[in-house]
Predict the structure.
Amino acid sequence: MPAYHPGPELLMDYASGALPEPVSLLVATHVSLCRGCQAEVARLEALGGVLFDELDGEPLGAGALDRALARLELPESLEAAPAAKPKGDRSLPRPLGDYLEGDLESLPWKNRGSVAEVELLSGHSGIRTRLLRIKAGTALPQHTHEGTEYTLLLAGGFSDAEAHYQRRGDVAVADTSVDHRPVADAGEDCLCLAVTDAPLRLTGPVARYFNFLARL
Amino acid sequence: MSFDQTAGPDMAPAVPSVAFAPFEVDGGEDGGSAGGKGDDPCGAAADELFPEDLIEAIAVRQDREAFKLLFAYFAPRVKAFVRRKGAAEQVAEDLAQEVMLTVWRRAGQFDRRKAAASTWIFTIARNRRIDMIRREVRPEFDPEDPGLRAEEEPPADDLLADRRQQEEVHRAVARLPQEQSQLMRLAYFEDKSHGVIAEELDLPLGTVKSRIRLAMRKLRQILKEED
């Protein structure tokens, strides 16, 4: 089981449907690996059900029920079978694996020194979603955040000033106040899903170089 | 909530008259009356139909009368839910149709041990809204993830999410301080993440977080007491 969880407010945003897709993906991946958070999401959905039930309904237009009844007979062609999904990667938790075009190894990794990365959900404006692979024992460049960065551990481990993340599914959340320098554990490359809702601002000595790379 | 049997399967009224007394089991507050906290609401009151029964009637025998009752109760709520999240009248109307159609088609997947009817329909409305209006997907977690198989099964209590839990949550929400329940309504109905809510209420993000945490702790506590 993971030891570091998304906070209750993040789980609530997930249950209520308020999260943008990339953050939702990260939370769903964690929850797939965590019984405790599954139970919490079930509670939060039950809460949603109660609040939903308490709403004053808005009457529907004339004939709404008849229209619905008429459609019950129609074949389900409307819900066209979703296009055959890409194979994805079965070694990852399903929500995440389903987003990949194929095996982890077959993805278009870009090498940046001790870090390799693949961009996911690239159509999503304002939010970067990446798989990061950090060489064992090396550090990410020091950086601060203009927004929030969510990091979910998939393999290996890493530490920052806050904690040591070493269980699959551990989630680290860093906001603007954190100037951190995650370091991958020695012994095994660290694989993470990183979701950043504003561009990173690099503060270390090699910052300009990495900022340049980040724009490539 | 229960549905009056007189409007039940054989009557086929044009406009179903839905008698609902959401969660106020007859006998109400003094709590002494028999069956008030029964484990099996269906067995406890034979003349009442719960929405869970109606969904199962659709699953088992494509019961159109059951669908009419569910539609009368839930479609206006779906519409209200989507409207509060900012959708235009017509869009909300279409979405209510889609959601109720999904209820009809997926009735076979409904499992009353896992969720109350209103929770199940809420999650359908939430997801349909995300794909129709935001044109996004909502990634669902996988409770059968192979990574979990080796782990212990959760205690049964922990996954209790059925009608009984629903009624407990309902009572728990009623007991929350107003500032906390207001926050929850904002979170669920305004399509705002807690960060946006903080901005709009002009509260520090930390305050919003701690109110949500307090509210959830209180809910859990109340649920434990009720068990």
Notes: The longest strand of chain A covers residues 128-134. Chain A touches chain B through 63 residues (CB under 8 Å). The helical segments of chain A are 8-16, 21-32, 35-54, 64-72, 94-97, 207-215.
